[in-house]
Automatic annotation (TrEMBL):
PANTHER family: ANK_REP_REGION DOMAIN-CONTAINING PROTEIN, PRION-INHIBITION AND PROPAGATION HELO DOMAIN-CONTAINING PROTEIN
Protein name, entry field: DUF7580 domain-containing protein
Pfam family, one: DUF7580
Domain DUF7580: 6-108
Length: 124
């Protein structure tokens, strides 16, 4: 699985981002074509979960838009255009920041906020 999940921390972040978008756990988003989920075979179950996450990365583009989806794709597939995949490598860490953190921040900043009531009860 280390060839597929190149960085477990980033993969887990990608899974969380998928779960946040859909409001469901990854197991609830599993389709039969993703493979079997077998509690007695952790390797098969892990592969099926990766297949689910990988499938959802492609589906996110039509639902969440390019910025969010690109960040999720980079996490799930550890796709940073370089061979290194450890967060201890400063150049890789910089690529993660530029490819995941900054885009997610831009995406978050773009979301319109509901106005909050001021001290006089009127929306500000």
């Amino acid at each position: 699985m280390s060839r597929i999940i190149r960085n477990e921390s980033l993969y887990n972040l990608g899974v969380v981002l998928i779960e946040l978008w859909y409001g469901k756990q990854l197991s609830q988003l599993h389709h039969p074509e993703d493979g079997p989920i077998d509690s007695s075979d952790a390797r098969t179950s892990l592969m099926s979960c990766w297949n689910t996450a990988d499938r959802l990365v492609d589906e996110l583009y039509s639902e969440a838009g390019g910025i969010y989806s690109d960040a999720v794709r980079r996490c799930i597939r550890c796709d940073f255009g370089r061979h290194g995949s450890t967060l201890e490598d400063l150049s890789f860490l910089k690529a993660v920041y530029e490819g995941v953190v900054e885009p997610l921040q831009r995406n978050y900043d773009y979301i319109p906020r509901a106005s909050s009531p001021g001290s006089d009860g009127h929306l500000v």
